[in-house]
Amino acid sequence: MRQYFLLVIIGISALLVGCGGGGGGKETTCPTQNPVINSNAPLGQNDVLKLSVFGIAEPKTYTWEGPNGFVSHEKAPEIPNPPKGNQVYTLSVVTNGGCTYTVTSGSIIVTGPWNPCGLDSNVLKINQVTQVSFTRVQGMVANSNYLIQADNGGLALASFEFPGNQPPTEGQYTVTTGTGAVPAGKARITFNVTTQSPFTASQGTVYVALNGTTTMVSFCNVQFTSTNNGATNTTGGANIMWKP
């Protein structure tokens, strides 16, 4: 009887060893995961592209690949002055369990120089004074200049003047004041609100970027002057989209 009891104990011990973790803990079947690449696009070529990934657990290594031979093993790489165009980036992640997951980004749009100051499309903001959303943006020749004008039904009007009689080309324009023909490489900005005196840009940089047929005019921290009480000297930003 004692002999049979020992045989039963030995049999149970062998069964427990056979159900172990597989030696080393490496996964034999990879769980389903759905990593997604995130970015701060769209952005301008003068900005920093920031990439990140979410939706995956236990990451151990990262391998990012992209345009112009870009390779990075950082968790969230940052790319200064990314190449212009519609870009695609690929990421391969290896988990602690030895599983590999590969994901490709959607189209990441990088335009020419752009600095929208964190504003939504067709918005101009005079800091500590007012912020206006525009319902119509149009372009036209105005005397010796090309004028891109934004309005919201007569309550506010913003005018962006560029040199020549053609829409502005992509690049950076230095703010100028005065009247008449705008010199090459310059831009003139005036902003009128019905209840206030005009605001005139006096110093700063205006960015013009082209995305297909859309002309994007943007700036941030441009200095404005006016005769309004408490706002004779202030700053402003804008993000204007014009499509002929």
How would you describe the overall organization of this protein?
There is one protein chain. The protein is mainly beta. The chain is 7% helix and 50% strand. The chain contains one helix and 21 strands. It has one helix spanning 2-18, and strands at 36-39, 43-44, 48-54, 59-66, 70-72, 78-80, 85-87, 90-95, 100-104, 108-111, 123-126, 130-133, 136-142, 145-151, 156-163, 171-175, 186-193, 199-203, 205-211, 214-225, 233-242. The strands form four sheets. A five-stranded mixed beta barrel has the order 16-17-18-20-19. The protein has a four-stranded antiparallel β-sheet with strand order 5-4-8-9, with no helix packed on it. A hairpin with a 3-residue loop joins strand 11 (123-126) and strand 12. The radius of gyration is 29 Å and the shape is elongated. Mean pLDDT is 88; it is low at 1-25.
The main sheet comes to:
5 strands, mixed, barrel
How do the SSEs run, as a string of H and E? HEEEEEEEEEEEEEEEEEEEEE
Work out the number of β strands: 21
Beginning-to-end CA distance, first to last residue:
98 Å
Question: What order do the strands of the largest sheet run in, or round the barrel if closed?
Answer: 16-17-18-20-19
| Apparent shape | elongated
Q: What fraction, in percent, of the residue positions are helical?
A: under 10%
Q: Percent of residues in beta strands?
A: over 45%
Q: List low-confidence stretches.
A: 1-25
Structural class: mainly beta
How large is the count of helical segments?
1
Gyration radius (Cα, Å) is 29 Å
